[in-house]
């Protein structure tokens, strides 16, 4: 092999060099030293610890007297065995000494782990270069070519065809031909052999040929093969260090590997073809395709390369059994950084792979071992049937990844053996533990690389028990383990080998795993994949393994299938299940039958909820760790409740709400929680203890069987549930049928589902120019839509169609409360009232459904622009619907049949400072829209109710699907909101009058915005005040140019909510408060100011009186300020009246009104509260009978002040604009 030359930081090096010593003085004086140079052997360094310490120092480390102190990562100290064992335990007789330390102390620094991973990454790059050369330059001389060639060629062909046939690939890739035989692959290898350098890894290329794509595929393959090679070399280095430690006789790694079954001995080439059923998604991807370089070259004495062991030796790195758990950190970090991150699209998204932080894994094992029953954790781990030797309990991980959960179990089993002298000092006991491990450790992994890593990880964790066996057995290695029950398979299908003779063992044991009645486990602790099956690369589950009546046929999260799989295979009553997943399944509709199934079959033990980004920094969804036990008898509906003989503990649900707490601190808080000492815990710990069945029955309202009743709720939520439990639903949950009753006044319509066919929504102007007036008049209708896309296949499609403006800019949603804010229409209406028809709506929906396909063909022909467009849309954006000629979607209940409807975006997002309230509005223009609600009662009455604070609370409670607060306003969610019908007609009329006036006020505000000079900035400031219910405008854009209003300025940096830093101009105007405005040209939304705090006392009348005549250089924006403040004040008063009326409608007391607003983080201002005090509960009587929804005593007075504010604002607008023009 030729010496490979690389450049790092402009330094040239060769891999093979003789090392010489360098003095400590030379090291400390070399300020320009680079630790990478040491790793790469460019600088010949002394391998002593001082050299290592010098090159790895950074700001997180302190050096004192040539010694370094590294921060020790937080690891739970799970248990002190001496405190948990009784003094007369038969397992603690005598004294003993152990060389294997607890896994909670003496750990490698996280910093050193990361630097070791960097060393491995450098070795990986070297090998990748060599592998590329061997395949492209020396293909005919490859050792063992005849045997290995089919694996390599098959793997390359599989990856190439997978990319070409992948619907998510670009159309250019989909148009390339597939490869059917090995000769074509050999031809492509020859074609790329002339390329001098390895191309960068890039899964998406804008333009490419077959050769270009194959170069990319070959690059991926070389990365995988190099990764596997480095991993196997890392195992050799670590295993050798482990064997040498504290050993009188150092056993060879080769001898250690001989204790395993030949199929588990990955250090040797297998003589048998591995089982690889063609039904697996990764068919053809055998591990043999990636291990050939290690076996043929790295283990060849003639191969001239600086091995991993040599590099570690150069740096003085030595691995000890104390650090065994940190070895797993190295494997995990190396796998994530140099494999998952490189193959992010193919690996993480394909299988939902996100590996569990170690502290979370430790916490989960703590829960199942330390927190149940009278048995100690030693009794649970060292199962000892009467008169027999201890053995390992049975453990299953159905999605084992790199084996972290299984290895944590092995570590704890080893520690348990250490704590029991009768076990640790007994060679037969240690032998039996090893033998039982090979029988009782079960796992499944679909990914071939993760599967190899898992085997390596488990093998390393067995070394401590093996070494103890050798010591006790006088170094006589006479043990042979059975084959481990680790399968490379798909848990959702558990494919069986077609050739049962050669793979009889796999067939027999997979059949056992497919039959839960014949195989049960003591512990199932795992992290199932996060992936929606219908949108991800998840296989169709086997109907023999899963019940579609419970799990459905599509749209189910993949983790739900793993819930089923685990519960079915857990031992009744004694078995333990601990899982981590997202929390959506606790309440959302998709899992209603799954929840009922779990309730019937499981004891729900405890739940621990984590905020988004807390467990995984890049995963936005929240996380839930929960623990279950399988019931012996299934609960049957209709059977009288019988209290169990042994009382169960209450179901615990914990939610730690301290957002500043780290993951470790959160876990520690959960670990420390004691339900008997709840008064001692901080306010951020929210908890709920729920009595188990039969005291608690599963709620079954609307057949949703929600588990949200287990979650801690606020005092406000409990109060509202109490006073509204008898009320009917605001929205009929069966409203898709054409039914309507007054008790459920709103009829919910889903509307057209154009997702993912966004091509059926077009820019109206572009459509008229593309299709012509006749087509557009017949097939297009205005649609309420905004562009939220800015890339991907849709961008490719619109670029090809010639309308790049369609995705030029991501637009903000025009949805606003009462009236949508559509800047291109006057008056805030959904569509413009005048002008050309193509200008009346920004977007239109193509109203072509299945029945209209033949009509379009007949009337316009297949050569028309309209037909060609729909055909291209189908090819690009409906790649899986080959039976369709053109793109279309259902148009039933799309909104054109309803003159008046209440609208809200179905995926709302969440309440925030910039969006503090819901935004229902009225459409009266027959516009197409999704998520609409109609009623036979006055629509403006329900528009006000839906935009009230009371309904906002119900929305946030019933429509949330994660802890971040994101909401979906689906029919079933809206049906959970109670409806309190009014009983006073005069109150209803007053309320409708307020809502209608609110819509008019907002329309006037929108029209005023169009008058201003800087329309976007003004709109941002006004809408922000409108949403908050504030009215004073004191930002920089409202100051007079050239006046003394701005007398001091400076540019400062401020951190925005998303973590980005922006330059803002700090200035002082009238008053002492410091105001902020974004620097000119930033285009960002003006942030909220401090002038309108809850303590504000100025009403609009006082503000208007104080407004001084404008001076200096005026613009329309400056002179419009009194107008905006007047109407914003009127809007705030009207919203207060709407909220107070709704409070009395539902009978909410004043103290709970305040608590509710605080919970929702809404602002109310003293200027309004002092004039119009809160109403307490149900107020008013009609003919001596208590009435709901009467006019507040100050109702007419508030309305009069609103009218005065509007009149003053409009008058000043006319006067000021006239003066400005003159």
Automatic annotation (TrEMBL):
PROSITE patterns, per the entry: N6_MTASE
Domain Type II methyltransferase M.TaqI-like: 439-616
A molecular function GO annotation: nucleic acid binding
Any GO BP: methylation
Region (Disordered): 1083-1114
Keywords attached to this entry: Methyltransferase, S-adenosyl-L-methionine, Transferase
SUPFAM superfamilies reported in the protein's UniProt record: S-adenosyl-L-methionine-dependent methyltransferases
Signal peptide segment: none
InterPro entries from the UniProt entry: DNA_methylase_N6_adenine_CS, MethylTrfase_TaqI-like_dom, N4_N6_ade-DNA_methylase, SAM-dependent_MTases_sf
Transmembrane spans: none
Gene3D superfamilies: Vaccinia Virus protein VP39 (3.40.50.150)
Reactions this protein catalyses: a 2'-deoxyadenosine in DNA + S-adenosyl-L-methionine = an N(6)-methyl-2'-deoxyadenosine in DNA + S-adenosyl-L-homocysteine + H(+)
Its EC number(s): 2.1.1.72
One Pfam family from the record: Eco57I
Broadest EC class assigned to this enzyme: transferase
Superkingdom as given in the UniProt entry: Eukaryota
Protein name: site-specific DNA-methyltransferase (adenine-specific)
Organism: Funneliformis caledonium
């Amino acid at each position: 092999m030729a010496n490979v030359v690389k450049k790092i930081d402009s330094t040239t090096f060769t891999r093979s060099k003789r090392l010489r010593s360098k003095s400590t003085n030379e090291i400390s004086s070399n300020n320009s030293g680079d630790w990478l140079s040491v790793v790469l052997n460019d600088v010949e360094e002394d391998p002593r610890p001082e050299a290592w310490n010098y090159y790895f120092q950074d700001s997180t480390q302190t050096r004192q007297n040539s010694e370094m102190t590294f921060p020790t990562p937080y690891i739970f100290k799970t248990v002190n065995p001496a405190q948990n064992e009784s003094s007369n335990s038969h397992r603690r007789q005598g004294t003993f000494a152990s060389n294997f330390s607890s896994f909670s102390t003496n750990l490698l620094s996280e910093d050193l782990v990361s630097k070791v991973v960097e060393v491995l990454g450098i070795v990986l790059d070297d090998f990748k270069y060599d592998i590329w050369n061997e395949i492209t330059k020396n293909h005919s001389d490859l050792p063992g070519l005849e045997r290995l060639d089919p694996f390599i060629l098959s793997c390359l062909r599989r990856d190439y065809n997978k990319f070409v046939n992948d619907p998510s690939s670009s159309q250019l890739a989909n148009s390339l031909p597939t490869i059917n035989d090995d000769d074509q692959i050999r031809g492509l290898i020859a074609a790329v052999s002339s390329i001098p350098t390895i191309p960068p890894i890039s899964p998406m290329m804008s333009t490419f040929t077959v050769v270009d794509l194959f170069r990319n595929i070959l690059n991926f393959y070389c990365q995988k093969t190099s990764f596997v090679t480095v991993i196997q070399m890392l195992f050799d280095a670590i295993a050798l260090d482990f064997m040498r430690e504290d050993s009188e006789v150092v056993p060879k790694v080769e001898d250690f590997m001989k204790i395993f079954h030949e199929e588990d001995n990955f250090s040797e080439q297998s003589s048998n073809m591995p089982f690889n059923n063609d039904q697996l998604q990764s068919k053809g991807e055998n591990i043999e395709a990636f291990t050939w370089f290690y076996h043929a070259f790295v283990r060849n004495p003639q191969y001239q390369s600086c091995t991993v062991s040599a590099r570690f030796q150069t740096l003085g790195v030595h691995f000890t059994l104390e650090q065994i758990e940190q070895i797993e950190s190295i494997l995990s970090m190396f796998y994530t950084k140099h494999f998952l991150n490189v193959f992010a699209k193919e690996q993480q998204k394909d299988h939902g792979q996100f590996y569990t932080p170690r502290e979370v894994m430790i916490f989960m094992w703590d829960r199942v071992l330390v927190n149940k029953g009278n048995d100690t954790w030693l009794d649970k781990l060292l199962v000892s049937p009467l008169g027999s030797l201890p053995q390992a309990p049975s453990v299953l991980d159905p999605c084992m990844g790199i084996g972290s959960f299984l290895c944590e179990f092995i570590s704890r089993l080893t520690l348990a053996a250490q704590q029991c002298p009768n076990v640790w000092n007994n060679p037969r006991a240690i032998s039996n533990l090893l033998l039982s491990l090979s029988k009782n450790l079960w796992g499944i992994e679909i990914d071939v690389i993760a599967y190899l890593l898992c085997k390596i990880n488990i093998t390393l964790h067995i070394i401590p028990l093996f070494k103890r066996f050798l010591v006790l057995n006088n170094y006589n290695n006479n043990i042979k383990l059975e084959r481990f029950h680790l399968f490379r398979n798909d848990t959702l299908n558990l494919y069986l080998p077609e050739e049962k003779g050669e793979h009889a063992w796999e067939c027999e044991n997979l059949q056992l795993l497919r039959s839960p009645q014949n195989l049960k486990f003591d512990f199932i602790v795992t992290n199932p994949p996060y992936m929606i099956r219908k949108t991800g690369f998840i296989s169709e589950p086997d109907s023999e393994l899963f019940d579609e009546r419970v799990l459905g046929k599509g749209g189910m999260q993949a983790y739900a299938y793993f819930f089923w799989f685990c519960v079915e295979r857990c031992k009744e009553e004694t078995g333990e299940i601990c899982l981590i997943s997202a929390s959506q399944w606790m309440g959302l509709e998709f899992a209603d039958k799954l929840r009922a199934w779990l309730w019937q079959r499981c004891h729900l033990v405890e739940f621990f909820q984590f905020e988004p980004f807390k467990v995984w920094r890049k995963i936005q969804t929240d996380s839930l760790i929960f623990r279950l036990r399988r019931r012996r008898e299934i609960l049957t509906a209709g059977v009288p409740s019988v209290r169990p003989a042994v009382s169960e503990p209450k179901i615990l649900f914990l939610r730690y709400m301290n957002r500043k707490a780290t993951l470790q601190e959160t876990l520690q808080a959960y670990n420390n929680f004691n339900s008997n000492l709840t008064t001692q815990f901080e306010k951020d710990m929210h908890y709920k203890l729920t009595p188990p069945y039969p005291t608690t029955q599963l709620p079954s309202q609307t057949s949703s069987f929600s588990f949200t009743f287990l979650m801690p709720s606020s005092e406000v939520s409990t109060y509202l549930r109490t006073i509204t439990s008898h009320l009917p639903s605001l929205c009929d949950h069966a409203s898709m049928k054409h039914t309507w009753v007054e008790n459920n006044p709103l009829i919910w319509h889903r509307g057209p589902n154009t997702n993912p066919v966004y091509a059926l929504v077009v820019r109206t102007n572009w459509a008229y120019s593309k299709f012509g007036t006749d087509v557009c008049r017949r097939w297009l209708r205005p649609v309420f839509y905004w562009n939220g896309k800015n890339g991907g296949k849709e961008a490719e499609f619109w670029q090809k169609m010639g309308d790049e403006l369609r995705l030029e800019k991501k637009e903000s949603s025009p949805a606003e409360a009462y009236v949508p804010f559509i800047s291109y229409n006057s008056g805030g209406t959904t569509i413009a009232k005048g002008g050309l028809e193509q200008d009346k709506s920004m977007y239109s929906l193509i109203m072509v459904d299945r029945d209209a396909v033949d009509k379009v063909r007949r009337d316009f022909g297949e050569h028309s622009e309209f037909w060609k467009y729909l055909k291209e849309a189908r090819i690009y954006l409906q790649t899986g619907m080959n039976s369709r000629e053109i793109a279309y979607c259902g148009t039933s209940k799309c909104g054109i049949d309803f003159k008046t409807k209440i609208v809200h975006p179905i995926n709302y997002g969440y309440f925030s400072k910039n969006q503090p309230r819901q935004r229902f509005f009225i459409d009266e223009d027959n516009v197409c829209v999704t998520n609409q609600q109609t009623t036979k009662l006055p629509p403006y009455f329900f528009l006000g109710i839906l935009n009230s604070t009371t309904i906002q609370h119900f929305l946030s409670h019933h429509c949330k699907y994660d802890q971040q607060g994101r909401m979906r306003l689906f029919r079933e969610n809206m049906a959970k909101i109670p409806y309190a019908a009014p009983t006073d007609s005069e109150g209803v009329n007053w309320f409708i009058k307020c809502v209608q006036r609110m819509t008019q006020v907002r329309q006037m505000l929108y029209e005023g915005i169009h008058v201003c000079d800087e329309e976007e900035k003004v709109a941002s400031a006004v809408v922000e005040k409108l949403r908050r219910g504030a009215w004073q405008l004191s930002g920089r854009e409202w100051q007079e140019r050239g006046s003394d209003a701005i007398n001091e300025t400076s540019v400062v940096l401020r951190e925005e909510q998303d973590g980005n830093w922006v330059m803002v101009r700090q200035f002082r105007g009238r008053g002492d408060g410091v105001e902020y405005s974004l620097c000119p040209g930033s285009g960002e939304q003006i942030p909220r100011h401090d002038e309108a705090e809850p303590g504000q006392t100025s009403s609009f009348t006082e503000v208007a009186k104080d407004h001084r005549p404008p001076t200096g250089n005026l613009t329309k924006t400056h002179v419009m300020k009194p107008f905006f403040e007047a109407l914003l004040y009127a809007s705030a008063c009207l919203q207060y009246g709407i909220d107070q009326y709704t409070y009395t409608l539902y009978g909410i007391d004043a103290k709970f009104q305040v608590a509710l607003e605080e919970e929702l983080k809404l602002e109310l201002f003293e200027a309004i509260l002092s004039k119009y005090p809160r109403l307490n509960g149900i107020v008013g009587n009609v003919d001596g009978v208590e009435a709901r929804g009467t006019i507040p005593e100050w109702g007419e007075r508030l309305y009069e002040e609103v009218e005065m504010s509007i009149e003053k604002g409009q008058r000043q607008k006319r006067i000021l604009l006239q003066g400005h023009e003159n």
